[in-house]
Amino acid sequence: MTMTELMPMLRSLSRAEKLHVMQCLVSDLAQDESDLLRQNMSYPIWSPYDAFGAADIMLKVLGAENSSHA
Asked: Whole-angstrom Cα distance, residue 66 to residue 56?
C-alpha cells in the first residue's frame, strides 16, 4: 500500500484511533533505533575535546563578527 492510498484512510480514523496508530508507529521506530546498537560493542563518538584547529577557526570567526559590529 502506498502513502497516497494510506493517508486518506488514516485521515478518516477517529482521534483515538489516530493516537493508537501513532503509538504503534513510534514504538516501531524506537525498536528500529534500539536494533542499531548492539550490546558489548564500542561505537566512536566525535567530541570537540582536543579539537584545537576547530577552536581556532571559531575564535577567528567570532573575532571577525565582533569587529564588524564595533
From this structure: 15
